[in-house]
């Protein structure tokens, strides 16, 4: 295997690991997001169980940290030359996603105090960034 093939294989592994980590975190956090979203939509945040609310806060914090670690690995990744432009755009889209996740985590305050505007805006930001990220992953898959 020559150097270019080795780099392409390492980059492919990085992309696969990134996508898998994102999927795992989303699978863990989505049910908790749905609980918060439902409570906000029905104006029943105060009725959430206090222990569960604290656990959700912690899990969002842990998930955001995991996303930040994944972003750091992606930023250090060495894409093959022909994929460099797409890689840079991919990193940018994922960075925006991670920033929106951090904002959502920050919006979930202590004592069942949620900054609804910040929560809603971060949800919108996550959706937009992940949509772009997914399209770029598809583009990389088609180019590879």
Tally the structural domains.
Answer: 1
First CA to last CA: what distance?
A: 17 Å
How much strand? under 5%
Our count of helices gives: 4
Q: Helix content range of the residues, please?
A: over 70%
Shape: elongated
H/E series:
HHHH
Uncertain ranges = none
- The helix/strand class is mainly alpha
Mean pLDDT: 94
Total number of beta strands: 0
Radius of gyration over C-alpha positions, nearest whole angstrom: 17 Å
Largest sheet: none
Summarize this structure briefly.
The protein is an all-alpha fold and 144 residues long. Helix content is 82%, strand content 0%.
Notes on the protein architecture:
This protein has one domain (3-143). The chain contains four helices and no strands. The protein has helices at residues 3-41, 50-76, 84-107, 116-143. The radius of gyration is 17 Å and the shape is elongated. The chain starts with a helix and ends with a helix. The model has no long low-confidence stretch (mean pLDDT 94).
What's the helix and strand layout?
Layout: H1 3-41, H2 50-76, H3 84-107, H4 116-143
List keywords for this structure.
144 residues; 4 helices; elongated; single chain; mainly alpha; 0% strand
């Amino acid at each position: 295997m020559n150097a270019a093939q080795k780099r392409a294989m390492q980059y492919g592994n990085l992309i696969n690991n990134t996508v898998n980590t994102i999927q795992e975190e989303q699978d863990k956090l989505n049910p908790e997001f749905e609980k918060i979203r439902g409570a906000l939509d029905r104006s029943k945040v105060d009725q959430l169980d206090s222990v569960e609310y604290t656990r959700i806060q912690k899990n969002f914090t842990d998930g955001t940290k995991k996303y930040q670690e994944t972003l750091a690995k992606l930023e250090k990744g060495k894409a093959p030359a022909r994929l460099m432009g797409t890689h840079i755009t991919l990193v940018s889209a994922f960075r925006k996603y991670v920033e929106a996740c951090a904002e959502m985590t920050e919006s979930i305050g202590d004592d069942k105090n949620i900054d609804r505007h910040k929560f809603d805006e971060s949800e919108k930001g996550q959706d937009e960034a992940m949509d772009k990220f997914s399209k770029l992953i598809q583009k990389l898959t088609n180019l590879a």
